[in-house]
Amino acid sequence: MKSRNEGKERDDTPVLITEAEPSYEEQYAARKRKYMLMMGMRFPCLILAGVFYETWWLALLFVVLSIPLPWIAVLIANDRPARKVEKVSKYAKDRTAIEAASRRVIDSD
């Protein structure tokens, strides 16, 4: 009997079976990339404001766009991703609950 994987090369990449968060170093690298990208957008905005100085409203628009970029970049770079909400199984037995004990009923008749 032939197996299904016969003739195929085996893929040695690990399969992610948990919902673990990325490591701190990966999170930091992602935040650093976002910061560098946003700060890198500020300089071209100022250059474009200089290029379009004859069209005052367009130059002003580029200057106004470049003003909050450092503040936004710092906020995004310092913000860690939100923690994931763990879903609790509704069918899991609650081990801390007091279990009902059988009680003897006494009639007053």
TrEMBL record:
* Family matches, as Pfam families: DUF3099 (PF11298)
- Which keywords are on file for this protein? Membrane, Transmembrane, Transmembrane helix
Show the InterPro entries listed in the entry.
DUF3099 (IPR021449)
Q: Where are the transmembrane segments?
A: 35-53, 59-77
Superkingdom: Bacteria
Q: What is this protein called?
A: DUF3099 family protein
**In which organism is this protein found?**
Herbihabitans rhizosphaerae
